Amino acid sequence: MESTDEHAMESDTDLISVLPGEVLQHILSFSRIRAIVRMRRLSRRWMRVIECLQFICLDYRDFKHWKVEKFARFVDNLLLIRSKVDLHTFQLYWFHYLPLNCNDLRKWILYAVKHNVKVLDVELDMYDKTALPSRIFTCRSVEELSLQMGEAPDEDLEHVGLVLPDIIQLPSLKKLTLSDVEVDQLSLNQFIGRSPNLEDLHLINSATYLDLIASKVLKRLTLDGFMHGPKRFTISAPHLVHFECQGCALQDVSWGEKPSLESAHIDTWGKKYDGESEFIGVLLSAKTLALFGSDVKVMLEKELPACPVFERLTTLEIGNWCLTEDFYAVLRFLQLSPRLGELTLMQEELPHAARKGAETDAMPIDGMTFQCPFLETVIIQCSKGDDGINKLVNVLAANGINPKKIQVNFYEDIEEMERAENRRIIEEREKELCNFEKMAKKNPEWVDESRYADSNPETDSDEYDDDYDDF
């Protein structure tokens, strides 16, 4: 009996084209935009599908040999051929050494806003900090907004980050990511207060002297670097389940309505900890924790002695201080984590740890023991030539951890593996792009997308420019 696949091959049935339109749109969301444009020539059905394209993803790496002007004309004409239907996703990633024209950028984003975009994702390397249209921040349809703005050009001396408008109202917003955007207390209050469904908030090098982050619905919060400050601020988010914090001192963070976090990643740079509220209380229900920094060590030494058991904790990453000289916090954590299954210890070399300088002396560990019957994986990360690592291994082995389960990874090898993986990804993408270019030359029956990039949109339609005025 013939299989369905064999029957389809013999009858030359196009199984892709017969799929429902929404399925085709989902498939196209994973394809290169230049290849998508060429598909218009396949059939009338495909022409209609492409002209109703729901996902527009523009990545500079697919246009790396093009001039900026040619890329701009391509995008203009791509938008011109679209039917007047709603747009689900508009993504633009631009890291060319030449910045995009601000007027083009405004025009494309306003097109997305006008067509009720749900996911707006813009990541730029250089741009005019005042160039983005204010209508982005009053779009009623957008559910996910990501603006990662990079550095301002050298001549832009007035602003460090993107300047937000006075009015912010995004009633459908669920996820917000801002990088290099000037977010002060007033603008943050508008984002939270006028976006009743905002559950994900990620501020990367954006927070500007915040006093309070308060939300009854927020579930995930990232604070990665501060544009100005930081000074002490309070988080009052009782339903928070995930928290990431980097680039500040731990003592600057205090809690109002405390959540029961399921996971946290904290990597701070302070030298001491004199926080007024008990920090460890928000971590007690966590399943996954990553805790790094000298002030984290000080906080743990202060609060762990009287701490209850971490009943749910299964994965722990901890360190970035000299563990071989001060292992108390780790041992105490292990005593309080009966269900722990994965442990990663990150060691700093003693000279570097001394330069950072924690404000407490090493606490004694004589007589301290622990039992972690579910611990299956222990990874120790350190620099090559660190002679103190054997001390960590011996302490773990003395408490019943099989040395075969302990793996030592060197930072130098990790960095080399990461560089090799990045090279592989770049080479693979370059190869794919090269194959695409060769295929395009061998198939002249395909529509050449450069045709769209050669026309002048200003002469094609007066309506196009009228639609994108910034009000």
UniProtKB/TrEMBL annotation:
Q: Which PANTHER family match?
A: OS01G0789000 PROTEIN, OS11G0201299 PROTEIN
Query: Record's Pfam families?
Result: F-box, LRR_At1g61320_AtMIF1
- Biased composition range(s): Acidic residues: 457-471
Q: Could you tell me which Gene3D superfamilies the record lists for this protein? A: 1.20.1280.50, Ribonuclease Inhibitor (3.80.10.10)
InterPro entries, per the entry: F-box-like_dom_sf (IPR036047), F-box_dom (IPR001810), F-box_SCFL_complex_component (IPR053197), LRR_At1g61320_AtMIF1 (IPR055357), LRR_dom_sf (IPR032675)
The segments labelled Disordered in the record are: 445-471
This protein is called what? F-box domain-containing protein
- Domain F-box, by residue range, is 13-63
